Amino acid sequence: MTSTKDAAGTFLEARRIAVTGVSRTPGGHGGNVVYTRLRELGYDVVAVNPNADEVEGDHAYPDLASVPGGVEAVVIATRPEHALATVQEAVDLGVRHVWMHRSVDRGSVDDEATRLGREHGLTVIDGGCPLMFGAASDRGHRIMCRLMTLTGRVPRTV
């Protein structure tokens, strides 16, 4: 097992990251928050939404396979029932790092998707948010990380 902190560090070393479930109507949607913060930090982020041509002012792709040049990592910010298909696509495309976003609710975490990814050698972070770690974090997310680790919403190891 790897500590989530170490796995998060490796995940955030990727420079090209897809965020699935980025919404056309952002509001406070977690996927959009992650997407825009990573973009502000200089990451090459790619929006994935099969129902949108554009989100957050950027071109959106219907799936990971449609992204020209591929990605190194993916944040899943969709409903949990979509996570399995995304993890399978990551396996098929050779994407090695997957993060299933989770805040105060169930988020995108799906146990079967986690199992599938790990069986195929992917590092799967099944909870929490990339904005809780490293240079991507802010004070609010770091506080949330501590509290959510205590409640099990952020795993201690992956």
UniProtKB/TrEMBL annotation:
Name the UniProt record assigns to this protein: CoA-binding domain-containing protein
InterPro entries membership: CoA-bd, NAD(P)-bd_dom_sf
Coiled-coil ranges from the UniProt annotation: none
SUPFAM superfamilies given in the database record: NAD(P)-binding Rossmann-fold domains
Species of the source: Cellulomonas composti
PANTHER family, alphabetized: COA-BINDING DOMAIN-CONTAINING PROTEIN (PTHR33303:SF2), CYTOPLASMIC PROTEIN-RELATED (PTHR33303)
Domain CoA-binding residue range list: 11-105
UniProt-listed Gene3D superfamilies: NAD(P)-binding Rossmann-like Domain
